């Protein structure tokens, strides 16, 4: 599994995106299958077809939004894509309404309650699996480092917590997972933070990991190449006096991203496991050991990704809150698609704003 992980990373972000989509589909299949088994709903008319139809609708909506957002130039160049982009939300809503009407028409008197159980089951599964896997794609487009480091921290915490718990565990952590111990939980946290710092230091030095995925108009291809931002340039930091006396260093050189990796690894260690506890509670509620038997000895795909989806959501929120700012290139791309009179209006407004602040006058005097 580890070797396969390295191979798909080597193949690049577009392959990773396809892998994420395949994982999402498999996770959806595992949870929906449990619903069929629990509610004995194999004979419900159209329902298996409708479940997959709703998955298709939601994926069309999310992936369409992603393509329009990140590859705006490519979309505007192609007439069919431009039309699909312009009416994307309307088309998505129309597709969903079609499925909704099909569900209503499929209702059978003796199965009303069961059919609504499964309708709710499908939508909750879509919310948990599809929405969060879509956030994984967003994180990936911001730079592979935002994809690899969080995933690796979750894997590291899972392994370290198990090892420390196996050798030193004495105090049970939670009843949902009797084998989890406080000793493994706490020591796994410190091991994961150290691992996150080291992995971030190594990856921050490579453009292929830190640069966002962009579409190159000249080569008509997707590229991962840029001038690394300040987040991925070595900086010198002063060490607090209390720690200076212990280690004898006054300053340390590190990447700013390493500081952010502490937040990521802390979440992976302290909150991430609750995704696993949630999955354990779900399986106990329906008296099943694993979501499926896809991976021998590991259960289903969902058994391996229960913590990863929660982690992906946190990373996306973290980037939006503390990292991502307005993107000038995207603003310019959208500006160029406006009518000439709209462009002129924005130009005059911006010119007046810069003149009032004295920025435009100063720039002209410098010239």
Descriptive notes:
The protein folds into two domains: 262 residues, no CATH class; 34 residues, no CATH class. With 367 residues, it is mainly alpha-helical. The strands form three sheets. The protein has a two-stranded antiparallel ribbon with strand order 1-2. The chain has a two-stranded antiparallel sheet with strand order 3-4. The chain contains 17 helices and six strands.
Q: Which tags fit this structure?
A:
mainly alpha; two-stranded antiparallel sheet; single chain; 2 domains; 367 residues; 6 strands
Draw up the topology in text.
Layout: H1 2-11, H2 13-39, H3 47-70, H4 72-77, H5 79-86, H6 88-106, H7 112-141, H8 145-168, E1 172-174, E2 177-181, H9 182-203, H10 207-210, E3 214-216, E4 221-223, E5 235-238, H11 241-247, E6 251-254, H12 256-270, H13 273-285, H14 301-323, H15 328-336, H16 340-356, H17 359-366
Helix pairs in contact: 2-7, 3-6, 3-7, 7-8, 7-14, 8-9, 8-12, 8-14, 9-12, 13-14
Mean of the pLDDT scores? 86
Tally the helices.
17
Strand content: 5-15%
**Alpha-beta content class:** mainly alpha
List low-confidence stretches.
Answer: none
The H-and-E topology, N to C, reads as HHHHHHHHEEHHEEEHEHHHHHH
Integer tally of domains: 2
Apparent shape: flat
Count of distinct strands: 6
In helices, the fraction of residues equals: over 70%
For the biggest sheet, the summary is: 2 strands, antiparallel
Distance between the termini: 59 Å
Give me the side-by-side strand order of the main sheet: 1-2
Radius of gyration: 25 Å
InterPro entries: PC_trans, PC_Trfase_euk
Membrane topology: Multi-pass membrane protein
Family: Belongs to the CDS family.
Subcellular location: Membrane
């Amino acid at each position: 599994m580890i070797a396969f992980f390295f191979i798909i990373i080597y193949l690049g972000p577009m392959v990773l995106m396809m892998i994420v989509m395949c994982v999402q589909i498999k996770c959806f299949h595992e949870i929906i299958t449990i619903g069929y088994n629990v509610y004995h709903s194999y004979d419900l008319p159209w329902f298996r077809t409708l479940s997959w139809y709703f998955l298709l609708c939601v994926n069309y909506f999310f992936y369409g939004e992603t393509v329009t957002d990140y590859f705006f130039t490519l979309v505007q160049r192609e007439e069919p894509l431009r039309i699909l982009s312009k009416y994307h939300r309307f088309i998505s809503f129309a597709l969903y309404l079609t499925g909704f009407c099909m569900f209503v028409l499929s209702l059978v008197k003796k199965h009303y309650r069961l059919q609504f159980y499964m309708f709710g089951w499908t939508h909750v599964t879509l919310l948990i699996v599809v929405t969060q896997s879509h956030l994984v794609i967003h994180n990936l487009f911001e730079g592979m480092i935002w994809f690899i480091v969080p995933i690796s921290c979750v894997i590291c915490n899972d392994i370290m917590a198990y090892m420390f718990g196996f050798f030193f565990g004495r105090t049970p952590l939670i009843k949902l997972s009797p084998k989890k111990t406080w000793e493994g939980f706490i020591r796994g946290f410190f091991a994961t933070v150290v691992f996150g710092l080291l992995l971030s230091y190594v990856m921050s030095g490579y453009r292929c990991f830190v640069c966002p995925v962009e579409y190159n108009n000249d080569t008509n291809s997707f590229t991962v190449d840029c001038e690394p931002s300040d987040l991925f340039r070595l900086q010198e930091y002063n060490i607090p006096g209390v720690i200076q006396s212990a280690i004898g260093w006054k300053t340390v050189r590190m990447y700013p991203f390493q500081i952010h990796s502490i937040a990521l690894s802390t979440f992976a260690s302290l909150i991430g496991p609750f995704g696993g506890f949630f999955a354990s509670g779900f399986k106990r509620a329906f008296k099943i050991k694993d979501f499926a038997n896809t991976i021998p000895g590991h259960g289903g795909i969902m058994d391996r990704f229960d913590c990863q989806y929660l982690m992906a959501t946190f990373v996306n929120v973290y980037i939006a809150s503390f990292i991502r700012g307005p993107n000038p290139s995207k603003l310019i791309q959208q500006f160029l698609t406006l009518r000439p009179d709209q462009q002129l209006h924005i130009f005059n407004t911006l010119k007046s704003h810069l003149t009032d602040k004295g920025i435009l006058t100063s720039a002209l005097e410098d010239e």
